[in-house]
Every structure is written in C-alpha cells, then in structure tokens.
Amino acid sequence: MTTQSQSVVSLADLRQTVERLAMTTPVTDMHTHLYAPEFGDLLLWGIDELLTYHYLISESFRWSEEEYSHFWSLTKREQADWIWKLLFIDHSPLSEAATGFITILKRLGLDVSSRNLDDYREALSRRTVQEQVDTVMQISGVSKIVMTNDPFDSVERPVWLADQGKSDPRFYAALRVDALLNDWPHAVKELQKLGYDVQTEWSQRTKEETRRFLSEWIIRMDALYLAVSMPGDFVYPADDHRSKMIDDVMVPVCGERNIPFALMIGVRRRVNPSLGLAGDMSMRSDVTAVEALCRRYPEQKFLITMLARENQHELTVLARKFRNLMIFGCWWFLHIESMVEEMTRFRVELLGTSMIPQHSDCRVFEQLIYKWEHSRRIIGSVLADKYEKLHHSGWSVTEEEIQRDLDDMLNQNFWRFLGKEHK
Ligand code: HDL
Ligand code: ZN
Fold it and tell me: What is the Cα–Cα distance from 81 to 174, expressed in whole angstroms?
C-alpha cells in the first residue's frame, strides 16, 4: 500500500520524474579499471589519456596507413594529437567513444566549440588529481567505484603490501586473476616469485598453495569478489586446467571468504597483436558453462557478463532459472547506445529490476562522465516506458517506488548480492 505521504506520480509527470531520478541516483560502478589516487600513476586521467583510450586507438587506425610501430613510438601527446585529427577534425566524432570524449568536455565546462585541444589540456592541467577525482565523481553521480586489482602487477602490488590500497573509502577492490585460468605456466612462475610452493602439475600442494594465495589477497584487499575474464571457447565442465582451477581452488576459496565469483566471458585476446590492448575481439560463448556452474554450486553466487551480443538473451533467460546468477553490465563492445537500449529493455522485460544494468569499465577517470550519462539516459527512458504502461493498466507508482527501483539496479542489487546491503 502507498502511504499518505507517498503520492503517486501523475502520467503527465511520470517520464520526467523517472528520467530525473535516473540521471541523479548515486551509482556503485561495480567493474572499472580505475584506481584510487593512492595508486599514483595507475590512476589515468586528463586529455591525452582520454584520447589514447584503446577504443579510440583502434578506431583511428581505420583512417590511416600509419605503421603501428611508428604510432607506438610517439609520445602520449603526439598519439593524442594524431587521434584528435583523425577522429575529431578530419571526420566527425560519431562513435560512442568519440562522442563520449565530447560529452566529457561539455560536462567539465570547457568550450567544446573551440576545438582547441591545447585549451582543453591547459584547463585540466590547472587541476590536481584529487580535485579531478572529486569533480568527476560528483558530475557523474558515481559514489562507489570497484577497481580491478591484480597482485601480479608489479606496480600495484607494493601499494597493497604497504597497506595503502584501502585509504579512500569510495574505492573497493576486486581480485582479478586471469593468469591462474588462462596462462597457468606464467601464473606458476609469478606465484613462485611471491613465495607460494606451486608447480605446473596439479598436485594437492599446488592446490593448497594457490588457495592460500587467493585467500591472503582477498583478505589483504578486502576484495568484494574474485574476477576472471574468459575466452569465448570456455567450456565447463571439461577435463582441462580451467575446470580444475575453478572446482579445486576458486569456488572453494570464494565459499570460505563468502564472496561472489565474477566471470566475464567472450573475449578473444590479441586478434591483432599490433594494436596491443586495442587488439582484442569478442566471440560467441557457451552459456551452458554458466548454467553448469550455477547448478553445481547453488550456494555460490556468480556475477556474469558476456561479450557477444548473441549470448545476451540466452544469459538473461538463464538468470530467470538461477537466483545465484546476477548478470551485469553491457560490457565493452556492448557499451554502445543501441546495445544498452536493446539489452536493458529485454532484461527488464524478463527480470524486472533484479539485475545490474550497467558498469562502466572505465580506464581513464573522466570517462565516468559519459559512460554513465549515456547509460542513465537510456535506462531512464526504458523504465519510463514500463511505468507508463503500468499506469495505463491502473497501477500508479510513487516517486519513492521509482527511486527504490533505480537504487536497486544501480546499487542495492550489487551490495545485496554481496550480502553487504548499503543504506
Ligand atoms: O577484461 C576486461 O576487464 C575488459 O574490460 C578489458 O579490460 C577491455 O580492454 C576493456 O577495457 N573493456 O572496456
Ligand atoms: Zn574490464
């Protein structure tokens, strides 16, 4: 029952109320590649980092016969100048990532019409990193940021070992361990360097020591979840290393630590090695692997996102079957307006508000501004359609109910899934 203090929203006010709340509800961004300022140079920000985002690098090469090696020999500023000319001056910035850069300039109050890159650089050079972090989080409405944290990263590891990783309460850790699953020989060398008694052979000792590694780092980071990205050829169960690592190590440790296991499935790494990070591709994956995991481990919570558009509807239907499956985000090549619209609409139609519609995947701090503005607008528009349809059937909602639904999708579904509901 709606209480007296909660008046229903009229049809005339419904759309603008939903869209206002969608644009302003604070967000927990549950998967990013951002870092708290305590991580120093790992935190990327500013005009030249924004322009050399790997999405823009790959788009730029479509307009150029430039040797890849020559581009990589340029300074970051020279690379940014090259990308700016190709994607913004010689051709209109119509792609999601290019338009996003313009959205950032606008929302930072810069004179977009000047098209003067040095003016933009100069304006940001007057800010400190702390000021920029605070400004961007305020503009984007992102209140909590989950990082991607890799103990094998030699720059990041010392920050954690010096117990500096958790200084800023707005930033949370996710323990990312792709190599354990996808490059075990390399992982063995790294683990041995860190003092863990592991061998390539899958011995009892190796399992115990790998579990110890994960437990120690989950505790050190206070990691909210364990995360891996998986190639599209991931099958489960299988008589292979990945299934052994998942069954003998990762699921048991997540169970002991009571944290979700996040699998991001569908990448095909380095299809064009000359592009570096920009050279990865998506590929169709096997949703039955997720089904098998959710069924085999009903007490284990799984955060799942998949990279191929072709997998999205089936994954959403699967989420109807398993309450320990929380699907999240429009990942990477799906973080474009047409796919966010398509995926959000059928996710709401199949799951209501019991899913996490978006994460940003940001690598450069100011990207929060466009990735969330563009997504909020679409999420708001989809929800407004659905509330209007309800209204025409006689079910009117209050502003508090709309706010609750948005807070569920943009915050509480994540924290509740972790067993850490935030009020
Ligand atoms: O593996 C991942 O987490 C992906 O998000 C990659 O980092 C990818 O390069 C990316 O930045 N996507 O947005
Ligand atoms: Zn990512």
Answer: 34
Question: What would the pLDDT profile of 58-67 be if each residue is shown by its tens digit?
Answer: 999 999 999 9
Q: Is 346 in the pocket of ligand 1 (CB under 6 A)?
A: no
Which of 30, 33, 267, when mutated, tests ligand 1's pocket best, judged by the most ligand atoms within 8 Å of its CB? 33
Assess whether the C-beta atom of 277 lies below 6 angstroms from ligand 1: yes
Q: How far are the Cα atoms of 76, 77, 167, 235, 370 from residue 50, in angstroms, in the given order?
A: 10, 11, 25, 36, 12
Rounded Cα distance between 129 and 115, Å, is 24
| Helix pair 184-193, 204-221: axis angle to 10 deg | 70
User: pLDDT tens, 327-358?
Assistant: 999 999 999 999 999 999 999 999 999 999 99
Distance between Cα 332 and ligand 1 center (Å) = 6
The atom number, within ligand 1, closest to the CA of 332 reads: 13
Q: Is the pLDDT of residue 45 over 90?
A: yes
Q: Is the CB of 178 under 6 A from ligand 1?
A: no
Residue nearest to atom 3 of ligand 1 (CA): 229
* Percentage of the chain exceeding pLDDT 90: 98
Residue labelled with tokens 């069954």: 247
The rounded radius of gyration (Å) of the Cα atoms in the chain is 22
Residues 6+ positions from 191 with CB-CB distance below 8 Å: 198, 209, 210, 213
Residue nearest to atom 9 of ligand 1 (CA): 277
**Does ligand 1 come within 6 angstroms of the Cβ of 359?**
no
Structural domains of the chain sorted by starting position, each given as residue range(s) with its CATH number in brackets: 11-418 (3.20.20.140)
Report pTM.
0.98
Residue 4 has pLDDT above 50, yes or no: no
Q: Verify whether ligand 1 is closer than 6 Å to residue 361 (CB atom).
A: yes
Ligand 1 contact, 149 CB (< 6 A): no
Q: Whose CA is nearest to atom 12 of ligand 1?
A: 332
**Any bridge partners for residue 156, and if so which?**
none
